[in-house]
Amino acid sequence: MRSGVLAVVALAVSVGACDGEAQRAAAARNDRAAIARSESTVTRGPALPMTGKWSEAHVLDRLVRAGVAPRPVPDAPPGPAWMRAKAVVFAAGGGEVHAWIYADSTARRAVTDGLDPETATPRGEVPPFAGPMRFVMQNNLAAVIVGGSETNQERIALALQAGLPAARP
What range does the domain containing 1 cover? Predict the structure, then answer.
């Protein structure tokens, strides 16, 4: 009887392990598919309008070119109210990039000029982003990079700070 109980327990453990392994494999397949979809924007990169203004496609293109395997996070929370816009969020480089895209640099400055550059929050507010983080502002883009390695945070920050080409006159 004892050997029968042990056999059932062993079978249950092995089935559970297989289920966990199958779930990890499915998650890895989903991640690879999301990365492949993101990387397909690189082929469209040259076709993006050269206005110097950021769009979601420009941010994604720049993250792909930075080599941080971005994946959109469609169900991400909207972000803090003081940013006055809904964030576009990407999982990238082991962390996340929260990007707010404004109509122009004047609209972005109206929001970001009152924020603490170290925390991306109004002075005295509790930061909603866990440290370490980086706050990047460039033309009509404000972005917060959280999580991941310091190297990847720097890579993402440099890619976004470089700006976009403007149309030739």
Answer: 1-169
